[in-house]
Amino acid sequence: MITSMTITDQIRGSAPFVYEGDFAAGVRQAAQLGYDGVELHLADPDRADREGLAGALKDHGVVLTAVGTGRAYVNDGLSITDPDPVGRQAAVARLERFLAFAGQFGAKIIVGCMRGNAASPDELPAALERLGQSMEHLDRIAGNEGVSVVFEPINRYENNFLCTMAEISGFIQACGLRHTGLLADTFHMNIEEADLFASIRANAANIQYVHVADSNRRYPGQGHLPVAAVLKELHAAGYEGVLSAECLPWPGKEEAAAGWLHAVKAITASF
Asked: In the chain, N or C: fewer CB atoms in 10 Å?
């Protein structure tokens, strides 16, 4: 399996990233710690130093595994289910640029909180319809760019619909999305899945990317989630892709990055 360190240019509030600052420097630190790749989080890909990032990846033998898009929602309020057509188109256009950016590096893009929230239970059908239209459009572009989208179930306290892996898998199937898969996040799964292991087995065919954190969103071993058993279940189900350190920078960024890698390598050494 491939290990990936989360990096962002700026942490706002309680965000699950273990490196903050210049992307090239983040790539260097990931390589020094022993990570295989990095997962990049930013609000707008047009603001990224692509040349500097490409050089750092090449120099340090690190791959860009995925590009997270949630900062566009958190920082700029962009949502692909926005009832306002102008706002919704701005969000879709931002994701189109994310797809082009990811395509340059052979990376996936993550769609999570950019789906937004339904204003009320009565609004949910309309929100799902808008989401379907947006994702069908983006899925076609992803195919043209040679990029995969991974759709992340997020717990109910952050997003109020499509919170489980089965719900995301059903949505992907209903919309006929050919270039979109499922992102399994152990922190969100611990909140939303009635049975983590059964959920992994039931959705194994769709899982294309994995975020790993403990029950308290710290690195594995700091909470009560049986992370070792979960990763073993993923391996038994045939998953051999990226394991990404999307966890809180506790007790500090470098300590979290190193602690996560040590814990995950110890678990996966027998795979």
From this structure: C
